[in-house]
Amino acid sequence: MVASSFLVSVLACLISFGVFLHYVNTSNTALEEDMTTLREFFEDGLPVVTSSSSSHQHQQIELLTKDLIVSPIVNTNSTSNSHSNGKCITSNNNTDETFRTSTNYKNSTTLPQWMKEYFDWHRKTMRGMNVCNFRRHKFIILRCSNADKKCGGLADRLKTLPFIIAAAAYSNRIFLIRWERPTKLEEFLIPNEINWSMPYWFYEETNSFHSDSAFIPAAKKIIEVIKIQKRTIVIETLIQDFYGGSRYYEKLDCELDDNKEFDHEEEKKLNDKHGWSSYELIFRDLFNTLFLPSPPVAKIIKEKMKSSNLIPGEYSASQYRAFYAIEDRKHKRNEVEIISKTRNAINCASRLFQGSPVFFASDSHKSVIYARKYAEEFNRHIVVFDNEKEALHLDKKVQWKSGNVSDFYPTFVDLLIMAEAKCMSHGVGGFGRFANMLSVDPRCVISHDSTRQNRISYCKWYNKGDIVDNE
Asked: How confident is the model over 229-254, as a mean pLDDT?
Protein backbone atom coordinates (compact mmCIF):
# COMPACT_ATOMS: atom_id res chain seq x y z
CA MET A 1 0.00 0.00 0.00
CA VAL A 2 2.85 2.35 0.95
CA ALA A 3 4.74 1.46 -2.24
CA SER A 4 1.64 2.17 -4.32
CA SER A 5 1.21 5.60 -2.74
CA PHE A 6 4.87 6.34 -3.37
CA LEU A 7 4.57 5.45 -7.08
CA VAL A 8 1.50 7.67 -7.45
CA SER A 9 3.39 10.60 -5.87
CA VAL A 10 6.37 10.11 -8.18
CA LEU A 11 4.10 9.96 -11.23
CA ALA A 12 2.36 13.18 -10.18
CA CYS A 13 5.70 14.93 -9.81
CA LEU A 14 6.84 13.80 -13.27
CA ILE A 15 3.64 15.05 -14.86
CA SER A 16 3.99 18.43 -13.09
CA PHE A 17 7.59 18.73 -14.26
CA GLY A 18 6.56 17.91 -17.82
CA VAL A 19 3.93 20.67 -17.74
CA PHE A 20 6.53 23.11 -16.41
CA LEU A 21 8.97 22.29 -19.24
CA HIS A 22 6.23 22.77 -21.79
CA TYR A 23 5.42 26.20 -20.31
CA VAL A 24 9.07 27.28 -20.42
CA ASN A 25 9.48 26.16 -24.03
CA THR A 26 6.29 27.80 -25.26
CA SER A 27 6.99 31.06 -23.45
CA ASN A 28 10.53 31.50 -24.81
CA THR A 29 9.31 33.16 -28.00
CA ALA A 30 7.30 35.80 -26.17
CA LEU A 31 10.16 36.49 -23.79
CA GLU A 32 12.60 36.84 -26.65
CA GLU A 33 10.28 39.35 -28.33
CA ASP A 34 10.14 41.43 -25.15
CA MET A 35 13.92 41.36 -24.80
CA THR A 36 14.34 42.34 -28.45
CA THR A 37 12.11 45.36 -27.88
CA LEU A 38 14.36 46.55 -25.07
CA ARG A 39 17.60 45.79 -26.96
CA GLU A 40 16.46 47.68 -30.04
CA PHE A 41 15.31 50.75 -28.12
CA PHE A 42 17.44 53.69 -29.35
CA GLU A 43 20.39 51.73 -30.71
CA ASP A 44 22.43 54.92 -30.98
CA GLY A 45 24.31 54.24 -27.78
CA LEU A 46 21.69 54.35 -25.04
CA PRO A 47 22.28 51.53 -22.54
CA VAL A 48 19.86 48.63 -22.76
CA VAL A 49 19.34 45.45 -20.79
CA THR A 50 21.12 42.53 -22.43
CA SER A 51 21.93 38.95 -21.56
CA SER A 52 23.15 35.91 -23.42
CA SER A 53 21.39 33.47 -21.13
CA SER A 54 17.76 32.52 -21.63
CA SER A 55 17.43 32.02 -17.86
CA HIS A 56 18.73 35.53 -17.37
CA GLN A 57 16.14 36.75 -19.86
CA HIS A 58 13.41 35.25 -17.74
CA GLN A 59 14.80 37.04 -14.70
CA GLN A 60 15.08 40.36 -16.49
CA ILE A 61 11.62 40.31 -18.02
CA GLU A 62 10.11 39.37 -14.67
CA LEU A 63 11.95 42.23 -12.98
CA LEU A 64 11.06 44.77 -15.62
CA THR A 65 7.43 43.87 -16.15
CA LYS A 66 6.38 42.88 -12.64
CA ASP A 67 8.55 43.78 -9.67
CA LEU A 68 9.70 47.16 -10.93
CA ILE A 69 6.21 48.25 -11.87
CA VAL A 70 4.51 47.01 -8.72
CA SER A 71 7.28 48.14 -6.34
CA PRO A 72 10.88 49.40 -6.47
CA ILE A 73 13.74 46.97 -6.89
CA VAL A 74 13.59 44.99 -3.69
CA ASN A 75 17.30 44.48 -3.11
CA THR A 76 19.64 43.91 -6.00
CA ASN A 77 22.43 42.53 -3.88
CA SER A 78 24.58 39.46 -4.35
CA THR A 79 23.01 38.34 -1.08
CA SER A 80 19.51 39.41 -0.20
CA ASN A 81 18.44 39.53 3.39
CA SER A 82 15.16 39.79 5.26
CA HIS A 83 13.96 39.69 8.83
CA SER A 84 12.41 36.53 10.19
CA ASN A 85 11.80 36.16 13.93
CA GLY A 86 14.38 38.87 14.59
CA LYS A 87 17.10 37.15 12.57
CA CYS A 88 18.53 37.80 9.11
CA ILE A 89 18.11 35.08 6.53
CA THR A 90 20.53 35.12 3.60
CA SER A 91 19.70 33.68 0.20
CA ASN A 92 21.37 33.81 -3.19
CA ASN A 93 20.20 36.60 -5.46
CA ASN A 94 22.17 37.53 -8.57
CA THR A 95 19.75 40.10 -9.99
CA ASP A 96 22.35 42.87 -9.81
CA GLU A 97 24.66 40.96 -12.16
CA THR A 98 21.89 40.19 -14.64
CA PHE A 99 20.06 43.51 -14.56
CA ARG A 100 22.90 46.02 -14.71
CA THR A 101 25.79 44.45 -16.56
CA SER A 102 26.84 47.52 -18.58
CA THR A 103 29.02 50.35 -17.32
CA ASN A 104 28.85 52.70 -20.27
CA TYR A 105 29.34 55.67 -17.97
CA LYS A 106 33.03 54.69 -17.77
CA ASN A 107 33.36 55.53 -21.48
CA SER A 108 31.65 58.92 -21.24
CA THR A 109 33.69 61.88 -22.45
CA THR A 110 31.51 64.39 -20.59
CA LEU A 111 31.02 62.95 -17.10
CA PRO A 112 33.70 64.09 -14.64
CA GLN A 113 36.07 61.44 -13.31
CA TRP A 114 34.87 61.83 -9.72
CA MET A 115 31.31 61.03 -10.85
CA LYS A 116 32.44 57.84 -12.59
CA GLU A 117 34.29 56.82 -9.44
CA TYR A 118 31.19 57.55 -7.37
CA PHE A 119 29.10 55.35 -9.64
CA ASP A 120 31.63 52.54 -9.16
CA TRP A 121 31.36 53.00 -5.39
CA HIS A 122 27.55 53.18 -5.51
CA ARG A 123 27.25 49.92 -7.44
CA LYS A 124 29.62 48.11 -5.09
CA THR A 125 27.96 49.53 -1.98
CA MET A 126 24.43 48.68 -3.12
CA ARG A 127 25.50 45.10 -3.82
CA GLY A 128 26.66 44.77 -0.23
CA MET A 129 23.82 46.68 1.45
CA ASN A 130 20.87 44.88 2.98
CA VAL A 131 18.25 45.21 5.70
CA CYS A 132 20.75 43.98 8.31
CA ASN A 133 23.68 46.32 7.60
CA PHE A 134 22.18 49.45 6.01
CA ARG A 135 22.76 51.49 9.21
CA ARG A 136 26.45 51.50 8.37
CA HIS A 137 25.72 53.82 5.46
CA LYS A 138 24.43 57.35 4.89
CA PHE A 139 21.88 58.36 2.29
CA ILE A 140 20.63 61.27 0.23
CA ILE A 141 17.16 60.78 -1.22
CA LEU A 142 15.54 62.81 -3.99
CA ARG A 143 11.89 62.64 -3.07
CA CYS A 144 8.35 63.63 -3.92
CA SER A 145 6.12 62.49 -1.08
CA ASN A 146 2.41 62.84 -0.48
CA ALA A 147 3.30 65.15 2.40
CA ASP A 148 4.99 67.67 0.09
CA LYS A 149 2.81 70.61 -0.85
CA LYS A 150 4.51 70.98 -4.22
CA CYS A 151 6.84 68.69 -6.16
CA GLY A 152 6.65 70.40 -9.54
CA GLY A 153 6.61 68.82 -12.96
CA LEU A 154 9.05 66.33 -14.44
CA ALA A 155 11.76 68.91 -15.12
CA ASP A 156 11.47 70.48 -11.67
CA ARG A 157 11.89 67.09 -10.03
CA LEU A 158 14.85 65.77 -12.05
CA LYS A 159 16.92 68.72 -13.28
CA THR A 160 18.67 68.93 -9.90
CA LEU A 161 20.20 65.46 -10.37
CA PRO A 162 23.80 66.65 -11.00
CA PHE A 163 23.84 68.57 -7.72
CA ILE A 164 22.34 65.66 -5.75
CA ILE A 165 24.92 63.27 -7.23
CA ALA A 166 27.73 65.71 -6.37
CA ALA A 167 26.45 66.05 -2.80
CA ALA A 168 26.25 62.26 -2.51
CA ALA A 169 29.80 61.81 -3.85
CA TYR A 170 31.22 64.51 -1.58
CA SER A 171 29.70 62.97 1.56
CA ASN A 172 29.92 59.26 0.61
CA ARG A 173 26.15 58.86 0.63
CA ILE A 174 24.02 56.37 -1.26
CA PHE A 175 21.80 58.20 -3.75
CA LEU A 176 18.17 57.03 -3.98
CA ILE A 177 14.92 58.31 -5.48
CA ARG A 178 11.54 58.07 -3.77
CA TRP A 179 8.36 59.20 -5.52
CA GLU A 180 4.88 58.78 -4.10
CA ARG A 181 3.06 61.29 -6.30
CA PRO A 182 1.44 60.58 -8.67
CA THR A 183 3.08 57.15 -8.22
CA LYS A 184 6.55 55.57 -8.12
CA LEU A 185 9.00 56.83 -10.72
CA GLU A 186 9.67 53.19 -11.61
CA GLU A 187 6.33 53.14 -13.43
CA PHE A 188 7.94 55.37 -16.08
CA LEU A 189 11.73 55.20 -15.68
CA ILE A 190 13.62 52.25 -14.21
CA PRO A 191 17.22 52.05 -12.96
CA ASN A 192 19.76 51.39 -15.68
CA GLU A 193 23.40 51.20 -14.59
CA ILE A 194 22.90 52.68 -11.12
CA ASN A 195 20.31 51.25 -8.76
CA TRP A 196 18.67 54.34 -7.25
CA SER A 197 15.43 52.54 -6.36
CA MET A 198 14.33 52.46 -2.72
CA PRO A 199 14.39 48.93 -1.26
CA TYR A 200 10.90 47.98 -0.09
CA TRP A 201 12.03 47.57 3.52
CA PHE A 202 13.78 50.95 3.64
CA TYR A 203 10.58 52.95 4.21
CA GLU A 204 9.77 51.27 7.52
CA GLU A 205 13.31 50.82 8.79
CA THR A 206 14.36 54.45 8.36
CA ASN A 207 11.48 55.67 10.54
CA SER A 208 13.63 54.76 13.51
CA PHE A 209 16.29 57.35 12.64
CA HIS A 210 14.18 60.32 13.87
CA SER A 211 16.79 62.91 14.90
CA ASP A 212 19.37 61.48 12.49
CA SER A 213 17.31 62.30 9.39
CA ALA A 214 16.29 65.61 7.83
CA PHE A 215 14.27 67.03 4.97
CA ILE A 216 16.30 69.83 3.37
CA PRO A 217 14.65 71.60 0.39
CA ALA A 218 17.57 73.94 -0.43
CA ALA A 219 20.88 73.24 -2.17
CA LYS A 220 22.82 75.77 -0.07
CA LYS A 221 21.60 74.19 3.17
CA ILE A 222 22.49 70.69 1.93
CA ILE A 223 26.09 71.79 1.45
CA GLU A 224 26.16 73.08 5.01
CA VAL A 225 24.80 69.79 6.36
CA ILE A 226 27.19 67.50 4.48
CA LYS A 227 30.16 69.65 5.50
CA ILE A 228 29.27 70.50 9.09
CA GLN A 229 26.45 68.29 10.40
CA LYS A 230 28.02 65.06 9.19
CA ARG A 231 26.11 62.87 11.63
CA THR A 232 22.82 63.21 9.73
CA ILE A 233 22.27 59.72 8.31
CA VAL A 234 19.37 60.36 5.94
CA ILE A 235 18.95 63.56 3.93
CA GLU A 236 15.75 63.84 1.91
CA THR A 237 15.43 66.70 -0.51
CA LEU A 238 13.23 68.28 -3.15
CA ILE A 239 14.80 71.40 -4.64
CA GLN A 240 12.64 73.89 -6.53
CA ASP A 241 15.27 75.90 -8.40
CA PHE A 242 14.99 77.30 -11.94
CA TYR A 243 18.57 76.23 -12.66
CA GLY A 244 18.44 73.02 -10.64
CA GLY A 245 21.08 74.06 -8.11
CA SER A 246 23.76 74.38 -10.82
CA ARG A 247 25.49 77.17 -8.88
CA TYR A 248 26.12 74.84 -5.96
CA TYR A 249 26.97 71.92 -8.21
CA GLU A 250 29.78 74.04 -9.61
CA LYS A 251 31.18 74.57 -6.11
CA LEU A 252 31.17 70.85 -5.32
CA ASP A 253 32.50 69.94 -8.77
CA CYS A 254 35.55 72.13 -8.18
CA GLU A 255 36.13 70.61 -4.74
CA LEU A 256 35.85 67.08 -6.11
CA ASP A 257 38.11 67.79 -9.10
CA ASP A 258 41.68 68.81 -8.26
CA ASN A 259 42.12 70.22 -11.76
CA LYS A 260 39.25 72.73 -11.50
CA GLU A 261 39.15 76.06 -9.71
CA PHE A 262 35.94 77.87 -8.83
CA ASP A 263 35.48 81.12 -10.77
CA HIS A 264 34.12 83.66 -8.30
CA GLU A 265 33.94 86.44 -10.89
CA GLU A 266 31.86 84.24 -13.17
CA GLU A 267 29.54 83.44 -10.26
CA LYS A 268 28.99 87.15 -9.58
CA LYS A 269 28.12 87.70 -13.22
CA LEU A 270 25.81 84.69 -13.69
CA ASN A 271 24.40 84.25 -10.16
CA ASP A 272 22.14 81.18 -10.03
CA LYS A 273 22.87 80.37 -13.69
CA HIS A 274 26.49 79.70 -12.84
CA GLY A 275 27.21 76.05 -13.59
CA TRP A 276 24.32 75.65 -16.04
CA SER A 277 26.77 75.11 -18.90
CA SER A 278 28.19 72.16 -16.92
CA TYR A 279 24.66 70.76 -16.62
CA GLU A 280 24.17 70.98 -20.37
CA LEU A 281 27.49 69.22 -20.92
CA ILE A 282 26.90 66.20 -18.67
CA PHE A 283 23.13 65.77 -18.40
CA ARG A 284 22.54 63.43 -21.34
CA ASP A 285 25.14 60.89 -20.23
CA LEU A 286 24.06 61.24 -16.60
CA PHE A 287 20.39 60.67 -17.44
CA ASN A 288 21.16 57.62 -19.57
CA THR A 289 23.36 56.19 -16.82
CA LEU A 290 20.55 56.47 -14.29
CA PHE A 291 17.45 55.72 -16.34
CA LEU A 292 15.93 53.37 -18.85
CA PRO A 293 12.30 53.74 -19.99
CA SER A 294 9.99 51.27 -18.30
CA PRO A 295 8.84 48.51 -20.70
CA PRO A 296 5.43 50.07 -21.52
CA VAL A 297 6.98 53.50 -22.13
CA ALA A 298 9.81 52.00 -24.23
CA LYS A 299 7.27 50.07 -26.31
CA ILE A 300 5.24 53.20 -27.07
CA ILE A 301 8.35 55.18 -28.03
CA LYS A 302 9.55 52.45 -30.38
CA GLU A 303 6.15 52.20 -32.07
CA LYS A 304 5.77 56.00 -32.39
CA MET A 305 9.26 56.50 -33.80
CA LYS A 306 8.85 53.68 -36.29
CA SER A 307 5.37 54.64 -37.51
CA SER A 308 6.39 58.29 -37.91
CA ASN A 309 9.75 57.48 -39.51
CA LEU A 310 11.63 59.54 -36.96
CA ILE A 311 15.35 58.82 -36.87
CA PRO A 312 17.35 60.03 -33.85
CA GLY A 313 19.36 63.13 -34.72
CA GLU A 314 17.55 63.68 -38.02
CA TYR A 315 14.57 65.76 -36.92
CA SER A 316 13.82 68.87 -34.90
CA ALA A 317 11.42 69.14 -32.00
CA SER A 318 8.98 71.84 -30.99
CA GLN A 319 7.19 72.07 -27.67
CA TYR A 320 4.40 74.51 -26.82
CA ARG A 321 3.26 74.79 -23.21
CA ALA A 322 -0.20 76.32 -23.66
CA PHE A 323 -1.43 76.03 -20.08
CA TYR A 324 1.63 77.08 -18.13
CA ALA A 325 0.54 77.98 -14.56
CA ILE A 326 -3.16 77.76 -15.52
CA GLU A 327 -3.69 73.98 -15.73
CA ASP A 328 -6.87 74.35 -13.68
CA ARG A 329 -8.08 77.41 -15.65
CA LYS A 330 -7.61 76.36 -19.26
CA HIS A 331 -10.58 78.42 -20.42
CA LYS A 332 -8.41 81.52 -20.03
CA ARG A 333 -6.36 80.52 -23.07
CA ASN A 334 -8.31 81.52 -26.20
CA GLU A 335 -8.19 79.51 -29.43
CA VAL A 336 -6.71 82.30 -31.55
CA GLU A 337 -3.71 82.56 -29.25
CA ILE A 338 -3.23 78.77 -29.21
CA ILE A 339 -3.26 78.57 -33.02
CA SER A 340 -0.91 81.52 -33.44
CA LYS A 341 1.65 80.20 -30.96
CA THR A 342 1.42 76.67 -32.35
CA ARG A 343 2.30 77.90 -35.82
CA ASN A 344 5.09 80.05 -34.46
CA ALA A 345 6.56 77.17 -32.45
CA ILE A 346 6.67 74.89 -35.49
CA ASN A 347 8.18 77.51 -37.77
CA CYS A 348 10.92 78.32 -35.28
CA ALA A 349 11.90 74.64 -35.16
CA SER A 350 11.91 74.47 -38.96
CA ARG A 351 14.33 77.36 -39.23
CA LEU A 352 16.79 75.68 -36.87
CA PHE A 353 16.98 72.53 -38.97
CA GLN A 354 15.57 73.32 -42.39
CA GLY A 355 14.04 70.55 -44.44
CA SER A 356 13.84 68.09 -41.56
CA PRO A 357 10.72 66.61 -39.96
CA VAL A 358 9.37 68.45 -36.92
CA PHE A 359 8.10 66.53 -33.92
CA PHE A 360 5.53 68.70 -32.17
CA ALA A 361 4.32 68.24 -28.59
CA SER A 362 1.88 70.28 -26.55
CA ASP A 363 -0.31 70.08 -23.47
CA SER A 364 -3.19 71.42 -25.58
CA HIS A 365 -5.27 69.03 -27.67
CA LYS A 366 -6.40 71.96 -29.85
CA SER A 367 -2.78 72.79 -30.52
CA VAL A 368 -2.03 69.22 -31.62
CA ILE A 369 -5.07 69.15 -33.92
CA TYR A 370 -4.07 72.45 -35.51
CA ALA A 371 -0.48 71.25 -36.03
CA ARG A 372 -1.81 68.30 -38.01
CA LYS A 373 -4.02 70.54 -40.16
CA TYR A 374 -1.11 72.92 -40.66
CA ALA A 375 1.02 70.05 -41.95
CA GLU A 376 -1.69 68.93 -44.38
CA GLU A 377 -2.35 72.44 -45.68
CA PHE A 378 1.28 73.24 -46.46
CA ASN A 379 2.50 69.69 -47.15
CA ARG A 380 5.03 69.72 -44.34
CA HIS A 381 6.40 66.76 -42.36
CA ILE A 382 5.07 67.58 -38.89
CA VAL A 383 4.74 64.64 -36.53
CA VAL A 384 2.08 64.75 -33.82
CA PHE A 385 0.57 62.00 -31.72
CA ASP A 386 -3.20 62.07 -31.58
CA ASN A 387 -3.74 61.51 -27.90
CA GLU A 388 -7.39 61.83 -27.01
CA LYS A 389 -6.52 63.24 -23.61
CA GLU A 390 -4.38 66.29 -22.99
CA ALA A 391 -1.01 65.71 -21.34
CA LEU A 392 -1.20 65.68 -17.55
CA HIS A 393 1.03 67.71 -15.29
CA LEU A 394 2.64 65.38 -12.74
CA ASP A 395 1.81 67.63 -9.82
CA LYS A 396 -1.80 68.56 -10.61
CA LYS A 397 -3.91 66.06 -8.67
CA VAL A 398 -7.22 67.56 -9.76
CA GLN A 399 -6.49 66.66 -13.40
CA TRP A 400 -6.00 62.98 -12.70
CA LYS A 401 -9.45 61.44 -12.62
CA SER A 402 -8.98 57.84 -13.79
CA GLY A 403 -6.23 56.74 -11.40
CA ASN A 404 -4.47 54.91 -14.27
CA VAL A 405 -0.72 55.52 -14.27
CA SER A 406 -0.73 55.09 -18.05
CA ASP A 407 -2.32 58.56 -18.25
CA PHE A 408 1.16 59.95 -17.58
CA TYR A 409 2.96 57.88 -20.23
CA PRO A 410 2.63 60.63 -22.90
CA THR A 411 4.66 63.01 -20.73
CA PHE A 412 7.63 60.64 -20.66
CA VAL A 413 7.18 59.58 -24.28
CA ASP A 414 7.24 63.22 -25.45
CA LEU A 415 10.29 63.98 -23.31
CA LEU A 416 12.37 61.06 -24.58
CA ILE A 417 11.44 61.59 -28.23
CA MET A 418 12.25 65.31 -28.00
CA ALA A 419 15.56 64.39 -26.39
CA GLU A 420 16.57 62.54 -29.57
CA ALA A 421 16.00 65.58 -31.82
CA LYS A 422 18.92 67.46 -33.29
CA CYS A 423 17.46 70.90 -32.55
CA MET A 424 14.79 72.20 -30.19
CA SER A 425 12.26 75.02 -30.16
CA HIS A 426 10.68 75.37 -26.72
CA GLY A 427 8.24 77.66 -24.99
CA VAL A 428 7.61 78.65 -21.40
CA GLY A 429 8.07 76.31 -18.46
CA GLY A 430 10.89 73.87 -17.84
CA PHE A 431 9.74 70.80 -19.77
CA GLY A 432 11.11 71.85 -23.17
CA ARG A 433 14.33 73.19 -21.66
CA PHE A 434 14.80 69.87 -19.87
CA ALA A 435 14.29 67.89 -23.08
CA ASN A 436 16.84 70.11 -24.82
CA MET A 437 19.34 69.54 -22.00
CA LEU A 438 19.04 65.79 -22.64
CA SER A 439 19.74 66.18 -26.36
CA VAL A 440 22.99 65.51 -28.21
CA ASP A 441 23.57 69.23 -28.85
CA PRO A 442 21.82 71.50 -26.31
CA ARG A 443 23.24 74.52 -28.15
CA CYS A 444 20.92 73.97 -31.12
CA VAL A 445 17.95 75.57 -29.40
CA ILE A 446 15.67 78.58 -29.61
CA SER A 447 12.86 79.91 -27.44
CA HIS A 448 9.61 80.69 -29.26
CA ASP A 449 7.65 81.98 -26.26
CA SER A 450 8.39 83.83 -23.04
CA THR A 451 6.57 85.10 -19.97
CA ARG A 452 9.20 87.77 -19.38
CA GLN A 453 7.99 91.11 -20.67
CA ASN A 454 11.49 92.51 -21.06
CA ARG A 455 12.79 89.60 -23.10
CA ILE A 456 13.10 90.44 -26.80
CA SER A 457 15.43 87.66 -27.96
CA TYR A 458 12.87 84.90 -28.39
CA CYS A 459 11.95 83.60 -31.82
CA LYS A 460 9.00 85.10 -33.69
CA TRP A 461 8.30 83.81 -37.20
CA TYR A 462 5.17 84.00 -39.32
CA ASN A 463 4.20 81.77 -42.19
CA LYS A 464 3.34 83.30 -45.56
CA GLY A 465 2.36 80.52 -47.87
CA ASP A 466 5.15 77.97 -47.98
CA ILE A 467 7.83 80.45 -46.97
CA VAL A 468 8.76 81.35 -43.41
CA ASP A 469 9.91 84.93 -43.09
CA ASN A 470 11.36 86.85 -40.18
CA GLU A 471 9.06 89.56 -38.84
From this structure: 92
